[in-house]
Amino acid sequence: MSGRILAILWMSVLVTASRAPGQEVPSQTLRLVIHADQATDTISRHIYGHFAEHLGRDIYDGFWTKANTGEWHLREDVIDALKRIQVPNLRWPGGCFADYYHWKDGIGARDQRPTMVNTMWGGVTEDNSFGTHEYLELVNRLGTEPFIVGNVGSGTVQEMSEWWEYVNHPGGSPMADLRQENGRDEPWNVSMWGVGNESWGCGGTMTPEYYADVYKRFQTFLRAYGEVRPFRVATGPNSGDYNWTEVVMREAGRNIDGLDLHYYTITGDWGRWGHATDFGEAEWFEMMNNTMQMEEFIDGHSAIMDRYDPRGRVALIVGEWGTWHQVEEGTNPGFLYQQNTLRDAMVAAWNLNLFNNHARRVRGANIAQTVNVLQAMVLTRGQEMILTPTYHVFELYTVHHDALLLPTDLDAGSYTLGEDSIPALSASASRDAGGRIHLTLANLDPNAPRTLATTVVGTAISRGSGRILTADAMNAHNTFEDPRAVEPAEFTGFTLENGLLTVLIPPKSLVVLELE
Ligand code: AHR
Questions:
Q1: What's phi and psi for 424, nearest 5 deg?
Q2: Cβ atoms within 10 Å, residue 13
Q3: For residue 97, what are the contacts with CB-CB under 8 A and spacing of at least 6?
Q4: End-to-end CA distance of the chain, in Å?
Q5: Which of 58, 59, 90, 96 has most ligand 1 atoms within 8 Å of its beta carbon, as the pocket-test mutant?
Q6: Whose CA is nearest to atom 5 of ligand 1?
Q7: What span, in angstroms and rounded, lies between the C-alpha atoms of 459 and 457?
Q8: Which residues are catalytic?
Q9: What is the residue with the minimal CA distance to atom 6 of ligand 1?
Q10: Which residue has the CA at smallest separation from atom 9 of ligand 1?
């Protein structure tokens, strides 16, 4: 039985709740137990990873822009904003683009680099001004870890192994010499390395049997140089394709360090996506219901991985996830530019709680994507930049990075629309190196608050503080005209008496509590 159904079956105690000013709807009192005495797993900060593809305006206009002088440079405003959410790794150059990309086109003098047509995304000319050196400079400026995805679909074993050598060999090899000729003496020590992307689709339309063989061949030539060993990420399943995981784990699991699951949350159908800002409660509910499939996928793929890798050595990496809507009117359909509302923020909060709670196997994830593409953190218009509601979720969740997961038992209650119900609440808790407990709570119900009675087993808590992300409208979002319509605020809607924490979680909100 899935966690979703179990959660719905949990007994909810309906009481006449204390009402927040102006609230007419009685709330349900639900229960949460935090087992501070049963912590075993660390929440890898890599769950909070990001993704920058040569797609639309993610790199060009997003990270990399042209000055009036015509010189390309990194965008300082975007870098400053992203530093505040402590990006742990940045996956690049794709996505589908990775299997079209030939890295040698993106090194050396910029004005002599060959151009190509990005036939995958929008048919625009790629001038290769942003290549390996520029990416690794960006990574350095962000204080993050690189995560390079190599070309399996249209590349060769030699091409990938030379890229690996170029970025990692300490010196005295052909590729290290080339790197030094291009102005970089020291290797960058890149460990996280994707061996192809979506090899079942845009990365080569392979069967899992064929990919497993190809994967083994490519990874053989990623040799350890000095201290640097590859953390080899294999193409994982598309959503619920369990056969892919079964075959790849069986045939190549011993040579894999991370398996890359992709799942996007949509409303409507593929190709006929719902709109990012123009929706009603039916689409809100549909979005929440659809995103909850992620739990089934993580449980299903983890169960297969447990059979081939009972000790949990291979990480499940959710290398692409997030919402996918129809593009904003008047924009290139191949650029995947969409707005981002409170609904997207709730999807992010729900998934991040899920990943935290599966910290044993899920040790990496990359929301798609960082700037101007899909569920972005940041949107730009010329020199202007705004932060999205999803950005604020990532900022609020920095407290969980590398913290110790505290297992929880949650009576999630239910949110009902018509004949259908889904769990109303989601939660995760962790303890940081300073002994503080952080609790992230999401109420998916856009209409009614929930009262949550929380006890912490194994430690005494006597004080707390909180922040909240919410808004009046389901589709509230930030615009260039009103850039702070959705942003976190202080939250005081809780009491703490004799160790019992009672939280009144407003409708459609994310609450973060710090407890000591
Ligand atoms: O993130 C957009 C695209 O979605 C990626 O390029 C691809 O891997 C996935 O299908």
A1: -80, -35
A2: 12
A3: 53, 54, 55, 118, 120, 121
A4: 35
A5: 96
A6: 95
A7: 6
A8: 198, 320
A9: 95
A10: 95
Query: 320, 373 in Cβ contact below 8 A?
Result: no
Q: How far is the CA of 373 from the centre of ligand 1 (A)?
A: 10
Comparing C-alpha atoms, which of 44, 49, 45, 46 is closest to residue 367? 49
CB atoms within 10 A of CB 487: 14
Is residue 98's pLDDT more than 50? Answer: yes
The span from the CA of 373 to the CA of 324, in Å, is 9
φ, ψ of residue 438 to 5 degrees: the values are -120, 135
Contact 356, 430 (CB under 8 A): yes
Q: 302 and 294 in contact (C-beta within 8 Å)?
A: no
Residues in the chain: 516
Cα separation, 37 vs 44, in Å, equals 20
Indicate whether residue 149 lines ligand 1 (CB < 6 A): no
Say what the pLDDT of residue 227 is. 87
**Closest atom of ligand 1 to CA, residue 374:** 1
Q: Is the CB of 283 within 6 Å of ligand 1?
A: no
Tell me the CB-side half-sphere exposure of residue 397, using CA atoms within 13 A: 33
Determine the atom of ligand 1 nearest the C-alpha atom of 96. 6
State whether the beta carbon of 53 lies less than 6 angstroms from ligand 1: yes
8 A C-beta contact, residue 135 and residue 91 = no
> Atom 3 of ligand 1 has which residue's CA nearest to it?
95
DSSP structure string for 225-263: BTTB--EEEEEEEETT-HHHHHHHHHHHGGG-SEEEEEE
The verdict on the CB of residue 198 being under 6 Å from ligand 1 is yes
DSSP state of 49: B
Ligand 1 atom nearest 368 alpha carbon: 1
Task: Yes or no: say if 168 and 187 are a contact pair by the CB < 8 Å rule.
Answer: yes
CB 364 within 8 A of CB 258: yes
What residue type is assigned to position 57 of the chain? R
For ligand 1, whether the C-beta of 437 sits within 6 Å is no
- Asked whether 165 lines ligand 1 (CB < 6 A), one says no
pLDDT at site 6: 34
Q: Is the pLDDT of residue 430 over 70?
A: yes
Which tokens belong to 391?
């950005």
The model's pTM is: 0.94
Q: At residue 23, does pLDDT exceed 80?
A: no
| 318 DSSP β-pair partners | 365
